[in-house]
């Protein structure tokens, strides 16, 4: 994880964290005390969502950059209103991936379900190459939130791995922390998957 100005931001929060990093690198630095101060200042509890579009890179190679832009446009047109409806905050949109945080883990789970259902309904009228094949990963817990630009933590890393690398099209994969924290389970089931990502005690496929 590169904590340079370019990877964080140049906001007050980003600059403060950079100062902590510089102090931490000094010989004889009290790293434990510095870490406590960092968590006191930036540590917050959030649910975090990473989305990805299955087969996207292959689609770009086969159908070209205009198809790439159209797919991005259509996916954001469908999904961003749902993020707002469920009180999520979009931190990043990077190519075919979204990074979103939620204060309420139940809302994060319900948002993920509605996103998948919305994509499925959209796909009913689309050709195979026009379909939006959504993958979602969710984590929940303490993390470092740096302004409105980024989050860092074990649950962030696990959610990223679940959503961008492990989940298949139409799947929602969640960490143990999401499973434990989700109290609104009506119509939902959690099926344990064999290999959780690093940083997660276990992971589950959400059946909706």
Automatic annotation (TrEMBL):
<dbReference type="GO" id="GO:0004016">
    <property type="term" value="F:adenylate cyclase activity"/>
</dbReference>
<dbReference type="InterPro" id="IPR001054">
    <property type="entry name" value="A/G_cyclase"/>
</dbReference>
<protein>
    <submittedName>
        <fullName>Adenylate cyclase</fullName>
    </submittedName>
</protein>
<dbReference type="Pfam" id="PF00211">
    <property type="entry name" value="Guanylate_cyc"/>
</dbReference>
<feature type="domain" description="Guanylate cyclase">
    <location>
        <begin position="47"/>
        <end position="163"/>
    </location>
</feature>
<dbReference type="InterPro" id="IPR029787">
    <property type="entry name" value="Nucleotide_cyclase"/>
</dbReference>
<dbReference type="GO" id="GO:0035556">
    <property type="term" value="P:intracellular signal transduction"/>
</dbReference>
<dbReference type="GO" id="GO:0009190">
    <property type="term" value="P:cyclic nucleotide biosynthetic process"/>
</dbReference>
<dbReference type="InterPro" id="IPR050697">
    <property type="entry name" value="Adenylyl/Guanylyl_Cyclase_3/4"/>
</dbReference>
């Amino acid at each position: 994880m590169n904590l340079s100005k370019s990877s964080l931001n140049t906001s007050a929060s980003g600059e403060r964290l950079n100062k902590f990093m510089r102090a931490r690198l000094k010989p004889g630095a009290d790293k434990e005390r510095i870490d406590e101060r960092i968590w006191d200042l930036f540590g917050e509890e959030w649910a975090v969502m990473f989305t990805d579009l299955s087969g996207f890179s292959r689609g770009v190679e086969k159908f070209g950059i205009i198809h790439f832009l159209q797919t991005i446009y259509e996916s954001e047109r469908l999904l961003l209103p749902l993020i707002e409806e469920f009180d999520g905050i979009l931190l990043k949109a990077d190519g075919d991936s979204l990074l979103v945080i939620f204060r309420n883990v139940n809302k994060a789970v319900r948002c993920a379900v509605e996103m998948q259902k919305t994509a499925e309904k959209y796909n009913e009228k689309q050709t195979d190459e026009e379909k939006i094949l959504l993958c979602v990963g969710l984590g929940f817990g303490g993390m470092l939130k740096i302004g409105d630009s980024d989050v860092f933590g074990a649950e962030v890393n696990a959610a990223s791995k679940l959503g961008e690398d492990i989940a298949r099209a139409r799947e929602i994969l969640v960490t143990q922390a999401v499973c434990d924290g989700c109290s609104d389970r009506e119509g939902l089931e959690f099926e344990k998957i064999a290999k959780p990502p690093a940083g997660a005690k276990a992971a589950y496929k959400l059946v909706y």
